[in-house]
Amino acid sequence: FLLRRGIMHQSPLDATCSRHLRFRDLVECGETWQRLAGAVDNVPRQTGTWDGLRRVATEVLDPVIERFGPIRLTYGFAGPALTRQIAGRIAPSLDQHAGSELNARGRPTCPRLGQAVDLHVAGLGSRELAQWLIANTPFDRLYFYGDERPVHVSVGPDESRAVVTMLQGPSGRRIPKVVAGL
Question: Which of 154, 153, 152, 146 is nearest to 125 (CA)?
Fold first, then answer.
């Protein structure tokens, strides 16, 4: 809560963005944010980002929760300060975790816009989760890294419904391959 002129105001992060989630749940998740204990400013600045968070929560995450129970978000919104802490392991210009945030040049960090999250459901393999998401939710992109890794799913204006498997190449680097399904 914020105190302004003697009046208590609720942080926008504490507002609900869907039936089951608050914005904070999508912004303050992930190992890097947890490790830094909130020492970085990771609050969205753009209205489009708030809209993307609401959309991924209502159209993707709520249906998952209602079907399978609690989820664990391993990566959600990533603003510039958080992104700098995890450089090398992500692709901000492609992965939609930055939502509609702008880079230093005033352009969207990720031109795809929308919003991405990575998630697990306890007791459910990621392949089964990904297959359910493909069959039951609108999405822009879904990245499958393997049955034990979180599923990456995004919403966005393109609604491309692209399913991408991230295959491990000989060098250990992951190579994306667009597939028809899992």
Answer: 146
Nearest of 75, 74, 63 to residue 20 by alpha carbon? 63
What kind and span of H or E run contains 165? Answer: strand 162-168
The tokens describing 69, both together, are: 């129970």
Residue-wise pLDDT for 24-47, tens only, equals 999 999 888 888 877 889 999 999
Residue ranges of alpha helices (H) inside 70-157 are 80-85, 126-136
- In three-state secondary structure terms, 106 is coil
Task: Note the pTM of the prediction, 2 decimals.
Answer: 0.90
pLDDT digits (tens, 9 = 90+) for 128-161: 999 999 999 999 999 999 999 999 999 999 999 9
- Per-residue model confidence as pLDDT tens digits over 77-130: 999 999 888 866 678 899 999 999 999 999 999 999 999 999 999 999 999 999
In sequence order, what are the residues at sequence separation of 6 or more whose Cβ sits closer than 8 angstroms to the Cβ of residue 164? 141, 142, 143, 144, 176, 177, 178, 179
Largest CA distance in the chain: 61
Instruction: Give the separation between CA 29 and CA 66, rounded to whole angstroms.
Output: 20
Q: Measure the CA–CA gap between 53 and 115, rounded to whole angstroms.
A: 6
Q: Give Cα 17 distance to the centre of its chain.
A: 14
